[in-house]
What we know:
There is one protein chain. The chain is an alpha/beta fold. The protein has helices spanning 26-31, 49-59, 77-84, 90-99, 104-126, 142-147, 157-165, 192-196, 198-207, and strands spanning 2-4, 9-11, 13-16, 21-24, 35-36, 68-73, 131-135, 150-155, 174-178. A seven-stranded mixed beta sheet has the order 5-2-1-9-8-6-7, with helices on both faces. A two-stranded antiparallel sheet has the order 3-4. Strand 1 (2-4) and strand 2 (9-11) form a beta hairpin. The longest helix has 23 residues, at 104-126.
Amino acid sequence: MIISPGAGFRVLSSISTGGGGIKSGASSLRRFTIACTAGPNTLRPSPPPDRVLSAHLEEMPARFAPRRVLVLSKITRYEFEKQKYPDLSEEELAVLLAKKGSNLKKLKDLNDFHKDQARKVVQCFSERDIEAQMVNRYEYGPEVIDWADAIFTAGGDGTFLLGASKVKSNSKPLIGINTDPRRSEGYLCLAKPDSADFSKSLDKLLKGQFK
């Protein structure tokens, strides 16, 4: 999904989960448009889709050509547990998590897979001479957001919503990448095939051919 967050956020494109990828424009806006402008716990009816779309297009650049991008990477469960129990060894943490029904090795494997995918996303930008900076949730704030021409989230829906929650400009694109399409849908992110082959998806975005 690609959204223009603004004050709160407004969804400007939605995903077809039937394998067709993202559908953009007024047709998808009629199907799935929300506005969160009165506070974090209040939903209000959206303005007419054509008004939302036209206002968005007036502020968006003619083509997607960022010079600097920010990649917001999720905190994995493995990282969370290591931060929660900093004084435990790997063996001690494995025993503790086993009592809770979790497998530390599996969590670490998932962590390593995500980190590898996030690094590949950054590499895709570098190969196209686009400056990229990767941050986690604790480093994500106004300074790095203002630095970037566009923001990509690497994780799932939760990471995407975190990214959207702090972007205040309607002209700053926010695009979600599902870093583990094998295990999760990522309804707010690029469709599974587009996330899995992000290099190809990025080329389409830069050429204005992403549909």
